[in-house]
Amino acid sequence: MANDIETRCIHGAESKEGKHPFGAISVPIYQTATFSHPGIGESSGHNYSRESNPTRDELESLVSSLEGAVDTVACSSGMAAMSLCLELFQSGDHFICTHDLYGGSVRIFKTIGEARNLTFSYVDTSDVTEVEKNIRPNTKALYIETPSNPTMQITDLREMKKIADKYGLKIIVDNTFLSPYFQNPIQLGADIVLHSGTKFLGGHNDTLAGFLCVANQDTAGRVRFLYKTVGCCLAPFDSFLIERGIKTLAIRLERQQENAIIIANWLKQHSKIKKVFYIGLPEHPGYEINISQSRGFGSMISFQTDTEDTARNVLERVKIIAYAESLGGVESLITYPMLQTHGDVPFETREKLGITENFLRISIGIENVDDLIKDLSQALI
To answer: Is 199 annotated as catalytic?
Structure first.
């Protein structure tokens, strides 16, 4: 069994070499909707691709290995994985959520979640006292992003585990920003880990995917039943693309982080930048906690410019860096959260968090770092 995560990114928990038909090194794409039965009451191990598919099975096994999960299901998008997660809860259940949360998460909670009579409180989960103060008799789960999107707040997962054990709560962690290469929430007590596989796991901005990873067998059984019932499965070809992306996860993230550290420090010195949000800066308030629970800082940076005009100039003038939603790919992308990723977050909440007209978020890619700095420099006018 492979122990080092760099090796597991390529081989999973154990090498598949020699196990694929004809000795294929890459996982074959089983582009089929259904499978024939050897006989009445007999199965090849797969019956229908909504339930399972050999290409997707291998991807799910790989992600389980990286996250230390009992089981993982691969979904058609990150939002599909989140929708599936909500199916585990009942009408009347209450969630405590990180107050700085991806806008798509807020949207699904406020629409589908609330329509099902689920309720959500948004609090600063980096403040243990604040979390405990908001627990209700019907609270069932803590929903956490660490680092948070987009202001990069850090939540102490070990402290959340103490609260969860005290009150009998589930811990759900969106681990998209750091990926399993840098952080493994299940090792720190999480019950469920979510990923937008579109981002760092895929790494090439060429397909959508989502993952729901679970820590115990009972939950895994429930998720598998819901998964085949709802039918939010990832297609075989998309499964192949994501697995191919994960093979380079380690080298991509190391290069992206290396670039991000240099760029964050450069932004700090620029006269038109008021504040830089990057968890790899020692002055970040969550720096020490993040070091204690992860293996790195990732490549997501947010920053405030001096004026709205400066922010808009950056978006209009960047040439190498693309003005686009999403993150985690080999290409650097810059986003205007108040209009894009967090447009569904209430105005008052955005203002309180500082997600204003002069706030930008950048996902650092693997380009030459000097070229990225030159691009930002000419755009910051």
So the answer is: yes
